[in-house]
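Lab meeting notes turned into a lecture example. A postdoc, R.K., suggested we walk through two folding results consecutively so the class can see how the record format repeats. The first protein's sequence and structure tokens come next.
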Amino acid sequence: MILADAPVLDIDLFTEESILDPYENYAAIRDAGPAVWLPRHQVYALGRYRDVRAALRDGKRFVSGEGVFFNAEANQHIRGTLLASDGDLHDKLRGIIAPPLYPAAVRALAEGLTEEAEALVARLVEGRSFDAVLDLAWHLPSTVVTRLVGLPEDGRERMREWGLATFDAIGPADKPRTLAAMPDNFEMHDFVASPDLPERLLPGSWSTRIFDAAKAGEITAQQCVSLLIDYVAPSLDTTVSAMSSAIWLFAQFSEQWDLLRARPALMSRAIAEVVRLESPIRTFSRFAAEDVEVDGVTIPAGACVAMLYASANRDERKWTNPERFDIEREGVNDHLGFGNGAHICAGMHLAQLEVTCVLRALASRVKRFHLGAPERLMSNILRGFHSLPIEVEI
């Protein structure tokens, strides 16, 4: 598989050390070349901004239809799903799941999300200390959003575990976290494939749209299951990661919090900077449909290629002082934290709104955040926290 012109690095992206602090490995990959062979994973890695963005936008040569995971067995199971499809099939599936997530539809949720965030933040701030993950960041996704998805109570209670397991299943097959995630993934599949689920969904919820499409013959029963999983599995964790990372960064860089409080118009840029610097999704993969030359390095047809979003978002070739947290950063909306191209995150507008509502509520009440002892989330793909104790100064 490897060609002579590809640099080779003996790096494991999925060790505990690399998950806790991946940035040295990313820098090594960027410095080694535009496309680097990682023999431990049998993949090529793209770490530079220009190359990752170009590949994500080139759906004909870097395809998703062969799978976007780092293990062959999991890729077999997801082919033909929204994540693992291309062209007309992908457009068709996205057209079914995406309308409730379009900007206009999301804007209609703003009033309700604002009220929910204000009430939550007022209660937490009154107590002066809370966990920014478990008490704060999980609240909006696990209450409002799960109601919008429309799952019955037993499904809503399991969404967190199912979501985390889905992202761990993306990793290499030989990793303990990947193997440990399989029971929860099987449980999630059995839940969404249950024959009585349609009768138990909240009427008019997002999930009912999928069953309506199946009844109309627009999608198969298996596609119905996979689209339900797209609502159930990834709809919480990336938002939770972005929200808690924002608190973590503002606690460390109080001058940036002062700036945001003084200039609320910087909110969208501040959130983009959080997602750039602490990208919630580290990587997905693509497969090369043909031999592809990337800045002089040839990736052979059939190769699995890691798209390192988090590395691209700290590429010094693109960003000035990329390690710096700067909510006034010019061009920050170019970040790849939500992906790019046809597979750009369908839920990014909702995620941005949720984080906006929470940060606005905090900005009106909190002068300073003081960190306790954060506990990083150990995940193959997600970058975030398991726990983030915070004390606030009001």
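The second example is placed directly after the first for contrast:
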Amino acid sequence: MAAPLILTLGLDPAAFARLDAARRAHFPPARNLIPAHLTLFHALPGEQAEAVCAVLEAEAAATPTFDLDIAGLRFLGRGVAYAAASAPLAALRGRLAGHFAPRLGAQDRQGWRPHVTVQNKVAPELARATLRELEAGFAPWAARGESLLLWRYLGGPWEAAGEFRFAGA
């Protein structure tokens, strides 16, 4: 059976750099095997990669780049994430969910709240301290969605499996 596929949003370079720096600063180094990311789907069928790529190519070609707001911080219990908000992002994810509906697992069928995790798998006290630290200097800021990024899940690390640029990117 082929490795599952993960789909994330490709962000503009400045936003990615800012979020990835926060992840490197706060994520336990031994567990930080992947870059900062905003997950759209956690497990698409790897054995159907060709069909998945065809859907992603068509959707990306029909989707202009769009803004999203990094609107706040979210406490995850054992970590912290930056919350994102964007009507075009929600619409894109909804269209993709429609395409992939019969193939989605439970995690991808449940409610979706877009975010970028910058800390996870730490003691709740450390997560609360990180949340307080990040909230102290937080002001909402804008990022830009520029592509869809497809990854193969390799049991911990991810392997790049494709980038699908949005129209105008």
